[in-house]
Each structure stands twice: as C-alpha cells, then as structure tokens.
Amino acid sequence: MKTINGGHRLNGATAFAMLAILAGCSAAPDKIILLPDPDGSVGGVIVTSGKHTQVIDEAYARAEVAKNGTIEKTADNKSNVQAHYGNLLAAQPPRPRTFTINFVFDSATQLAPDSATVVATLKAVLATWPAPRLMVVGHTDMAGSQEFNDRLSMRRAQSVASFLVKQGIPARQIEVAGRGKREPLVHTPDGVPNQLNRRVVITIQ
C-alpha cells in the first residue's frame, strides 16, 4: 500500500501544489512531482510506501514508487514537466484567490478609495474564471456593539454579493456570511475604529 503524506509543511515553506500520476495496478511506477506555488515558493511532501520514505522539497522534484515499494527521487525541470504533462496541468482548476475590499466608517455600500483597484482586478479575474464559486465574508472594526456590527458586516457582504450578481455570477454560486468584529485584521482595543478591519473578503474557487 502506497501513501502520500503531505500533512506537514517542511522548513516553514508555503503550501505546495503536487501532481500525482497514479498507475494503479499497472507495471508503471506511481509518480509524484512537486510543483512550485505561483510566486515561486516551494513546500514539501513526504512520500511513504511500506517501510520506505522519501522527502521531496525542491521544485519539480520527482518521486517514483515502484511495485516493490522502493522510492526513487530524481530532479526534473519545468520545461520537461510541461512537455510530458501539459494537458493534465491545463485541466487543473484555478487555485483559489482572495480579494479584500475595504469600506468607509459605518457604511455597507461606500467603498474606501483604495478599493477601486481591487474591484477592477476582481472584475478582470471573474471574466476569465470558469464557473466560479465565491465565499463573501463581511467584517467590521471594533467600534460599536456586537449586535450592530453583526448586522453591518452582513450588509457589507450582501452589498458585494449584489455587485457580483450584476457582474454575471449566478446567486446560487455565492455564499455570504458576516463575522461582525470577531475576526479583526488589525487587533485594536474594543471601540477603536480601523479602516483595515472594515472589509469584505472574497474568495474565488
């Protein structure tokens, strides 16, 4: 029995992407190729087969698991991986992306001036994203009561959801939630306003 254990990140690296071509019962070995993140950072994965263990933590490193359970680690490169597995890579869904839109104080509709660029980028991404599903979560700063901020954060999320529907995203593909002041981006004492905390976080997947 062969297992791939990627439950622990190695050397503090960021999350990894992994391409695994499983050969089933054929004579060909199972192959695991470690892909870098879009920003070039590389995580790591532990490949385990019976009593054999191998760590791959370099971009495009390959681990091949033979039928007898042995694991061979080899180096590869981007061009070779693309040449052999280009069609498989192209079929992968896009990785989730997150956008943050900020609001002015006490408003559920008026965006902070610096959010215009984020909105423009969001629109461009949605125009090319196949069948997107979105999670829209509203937040507030620490000013005001919990009850008031719960309502305000939900109204902010609903405002952004309405905008997304106008951009052509079906409402059934949008999930909306409000967190009030429970999850501040910038931790401040209760009652202190902060623009970075007045936000809606949109995750596209």
What are the salient characteristics of this protein?
single chain; 2 domains; four-stranded mixed β-sheet; alpha+beta; 3 helices; 23% helix; 60s Ribosomal Protein L30, Chain: A; 205 residues; disordered N terminus; four-stranded antiparallel β-sheet; 11 strands
What does this entry look like structurally?
This protein starts with a strand and ends with a strand. The radius of gyration is 22 Å and the shape is elongated. The chain is of the alpha+beta class and 205 residues long. Mean pLDDT is 84; it is low at 1-18 and 21-26. The chain has 3 helices and 11 strands, in the order βββββββαβαβαββ. The strands form 3 sheets. The protein has a 4-stranded antiparallel β-sheet, with no helix packed on it. The chain has a 4-stranded mixed β-sheet with strand order 8-11-9-10. The protein has helices at 78-90, 116-128, 146-166, and strands at residues 2-5, 17-21, 30-35, 45-49, 52-56, 62-65, 71-74, 97-102, 134-138, 174-178, 199-204. A hairpin with a 5-residue loop joins strand 6 (62-65) and strand 7. It has 2 domains: 2-90, no CATH class; 97-204, OmpA-like domain (60s Ribosomal Protein L30, Chain: A), CATH 3.30.1330.
List the helices and strands and how they pair.
Elements: E1 2-5, E2 17-21, E3 30-35, E4 45-49, E5 52-56, E6 62-65, E7 71-74, H1 78-90, E8 97-102, H2 116-128, E9 134-138, H3 146-166, E10 174-178, E11 199-204
